[in-house]
Design brief:
Number of helices: 4
Radius of gyration: 21 Å
Number of domains: 2
Structural class: mainly alpha
Strand content: under 5%
Shape: elongated
Number of strands: 0
Distance between the termini: 63 Å
Length: 122
């Protein structure tokens, strides 16, 4: 049975079906861009499950290792590691449980310490 326009018995023309497919493809690409950045980022080669490690210190150390391997410049490495951590926190949004969010915020402080940066102002 051919697909019909909503509320009518008229079948969709081929150009309408093509446009509908294109809209679906664009929507799927928009939905998954952050997953692709996290999984395929050329900036850092992250260890599997880095954001689910047991402690903030382990998360920070893992990010530092990955950033130092990818970026020889300490400033660039620090920025990359902090950006990836912030990106993960922001993308999780309201779905991130409070205890996980607190652990990741503490990991930011640990990362600052590892790179000898000043603590954030509270």
């Amino acid at each position: 049975m051919p697909r019909c326009r909503a509320g009518t018995a008229k079948p969709l023309r081929s150009s309408q079906r093509r446009r509908e497919r294109q809209t679906i493809n664009v929507t799927n690409k928009r939905k998954n861009w952050s997953q692709q950045v996290t999984g395929n980022s050329s900036a850092l080669e992250l260890e599997d499950g880095v954001f689910t490690l047991g402690s903030a210190r382990k998360i920070a150390e893992s990010l530092k290792r990955s950033a130092d391997q990818a970026k020889p410049d300490a400033n660039a490495a620090y920025r990359s590691a902090m950006s990836m951590l912030t990106f993960y926190i922001n993308r999780a949004g309201k779905k991130l449980p409070d205890d996980e969010r607190q652990k990741l915020e503490t990991a930011k402080d640990e990362l600052r310490r590892l790179y000898d940066r000043p603590a954030r102002k509270r």
